[in-house]
Specification:
The protein is elongated and about 70 Å long. It starts with about 25 loop residues before the first helix and ends with a strand. It has helices at about 25-40, 45-55, 60-65, 75-85, 85-90, and strands spanning about 110, 125, 135-140, 155-165, 165-170, 175-180, 185, 190-195, 200-210. The chain contains five helices and nine strands. It has about 210 residues and is an alpha+beta fold. The strands form two sheets. It has a six-stranded antiparallel beta sheet, with no helix packed on it.
Length: about 210
């Protein structure tokens, strides 16, 4: 037990009343308690520190971590906020870390934004798993390409880094020329377009949120 953790030997505090036997909440209480305990230790908090941050008593938190008591939804939300995790994760429990590999020759090809076939010259590949919360896209922009005059506007934010070649990015009324290693981040609600003013294919790595495809 980390230094400063309470053993919670006292009775169950009133703010976390006992769960009536047979009401079907035992499994949920156990799941929530285990998630709180595991996450608290991962982020390096003692029982006392988390209790103070969440505004609950140390004894109540100690009992909860042992799967005892029946905390209110408001209390669970305060604990989730204090731990920096979504409430749904607190209720569903800790899941095993996942990893996904996308092989170089198996990258899904993406359509042009908005289905604009005029931008089909740009080859876009998704480097992250489909349906995930993170989206990273590798784009190859041929020399002489430009979609000036048909700019895009959509919700979200985009970060782009030039891996090779040159890229001209227009955001709103500003135009920026980028060289290898340069990065630009912009609000996608502003009208924006790309062009390749160079003589070689430009390779770009971009991350966008929320998901664009």
């Amino acid at each position: 037990m980390p230094t400063g953790e309470s053993d919670g030997s006292a009775g169950v505090p009133e703010e976390f009343p006992d769960v009536p036997a047979g009401d079907g909440n035992e499994g949920l209480a156990s799941t929530v308690g285990a998630t709180v305990r595991t996450t608290r230790r991962v982020v390096g908090l003692t029982v006392e520190a988390l209790a103070s941050r969440a505004g609950v008593s140390t004894g109540a938190l100690s009992h909860l971590e042992r799967g005892q008591g029946n905390p209110s939804l408001q209390t669970l939300q305060r604990l989730a906020t204090a731990l920096g995790i979504p409430l749904v994760q607190l209720l569903q429990g800790v899941t095993a870390p996942e990893h996904h590999v996308v092989r170089a020759g198996q990258r899904p090809r993406l359509p042009a934004p908005g289905g604009d076939t005029r931008d089909s010259e740009v080859q876009r590949e998704l480097l992250t798993p489909s349906g995930g919360r993170l989206q990273v896209i590798r784009s190859e922009v041929p020399p002489g390409f430009s979609n000036e005059g048909r700019s895009y506007r959509h919700l979200g934010q985009e970060c782009v880094v030039v891996l090779s070649g040159r890229l001209r990015v227009s955001v709103g009324q500003e135009v920026v020329d980028l060289s290898p290693g340069d990065t630009i981040t912009y609000d996608c609600t502003a009208a924006h377009w790309w062009s390749n003013p160079g003589t070689e294919t430009t390779v770009v790595l971009g991350a966008v949120t929320p998901l664009a495809f």
